[in-house]
Amino acid sequence: MVEEEPRVSDLQFVGLSTYHAFARSRGRAALDFSHAGGKQ
């Protein structure tokens, strides 16, 4: 099987995964904040 698609560079991959992890943790923090605010 020959790979014809251009490979994603390591830098792009790391940057993308870091961005997704950051967005995920940010969203989770926002959810926790809203839940805590709703309880109090």
Automatic annotation (TrEMBL):
It comes from the Eukaryota. This is Uncharacterized protein. It comes from Peronospora matthiolae. The lineage of its organism: Eukaryota, Sar, Stramenopiles, Oomycota, Peronosporomycetes.
